[in-house]
Design brief:
By secondary structure, the chain is an alpha+beta fold. The chain folds into 2 domains: 38 residues, no CATH class; 172 residues, GAF domain (Beta-Lactamase, 2-Layer Sandwich). The protein contains 8 helices and 8 strands. The radius of gyration is 20 Å and the shape is elongated.
Length: 239
């Protein structure tokens, strides 16, 4: 408690009152050693908010999937991976499917690269090693090549996975902002053979859907700096 009082620079009585109120709501708990830590109530709040977010975004994912007749994913950055929050599966015999709650490496996926492009170069270097494991013959295996691609993604506003994570599967991805600093990626994964000749169509439909989602959940947050790096640091999405 003494360290907490020092950190927040508030009177001890005020800190005690605030901590007691948060403990009553299960948002803070005291350890056996007297340390204050986050409580399980925050997990329940996050889970409830995640359901609200998915419910808000779901109609736009369904519309995009129906328009393109392709699968659509919703994901967030989870350290150096992407975590899948939702998916609308297209009624195709040959399709790309990932499990909700599953994770893929960020550096070799369209949603991951789109989200990494929202970070500064310094932040990317803290997350991504200089040498990257090879997933397929198309995987970028050096951070320097990844950084060059992230610069291009910042310029175009969308990311492409050309069989970098899974052979035979490509994807296009774009980030949406929730207005509170949170970032999510909407992705259209599909067999590479169905991407040929449709890239412009998919990018246009994806961009329109992401714009509509941003309007629904709060709008864009942060701008890109003059050097191509995001001026806003990546913060936890509004889950």
């Amino acid at each position: 408690m003494a360290n907490l009082v020092k950190d927040v620079e508030l009177p001890r009585s005020t800190v005690h009152r605030i901590v007691a109120a948060l403990q009553a709501e299960d948002l803070l708990v005291s350890s056996a050693e007297g340390r204050i830590r986050l409580g399980p109530g925050l997990v329940r709040l996050a889970a409830a908010e995640r359901l609200d977010l998915r419910a808000s975004v779901r109609p736009y994912l369904e519309r995009l999937s129906a328009d393109l007749n392709e699968t659509v994913d919703l994901a967030v950055l989870d350290v150096d991976s992407v975590l899948f929050l939702d998916q609308v599966t297209a009624p195709q015999r040959l399709r790309a499917v990932s499990a909700i709650g599953g994770t893929f490496p960020a550096y070799c996926t369209a949603n991951g690269k789109a989200l990494l492009a929202e970070l500064t170069t310094e932040e990317v270097r803290k997350l991504v090693p200089s040498r990257l494991p090879k997933q397929t013959p198309n995987t970028l295996t050096s951070r320097s090549k990844l950084e060059a691609e992230l610069k291009e993604i910042r310029r175009t506003g969308y990311a492409v996975d050309r069989e970098e994570h899974s052979s035979g599967i490509s994807a296009l991805g774009k980030v949406v902002h929730d207005g509170f600093g949170g970032k999510l990626a909407v992705t259209v994964p599909l067999p590479t053979q169905r991407l040929l000749g449709r890239e412009e169509e998919i990018i246009e439909a994806l961009s329109q859907a992401c714009g509509e989602i941003e309007s629904e959940i709060g709008g864009p947050a942060g701008d890109l700096g003059v050097d191509g790096d995001s001026t806003a640091t990546q913060s936890a999405p509004r889950l």
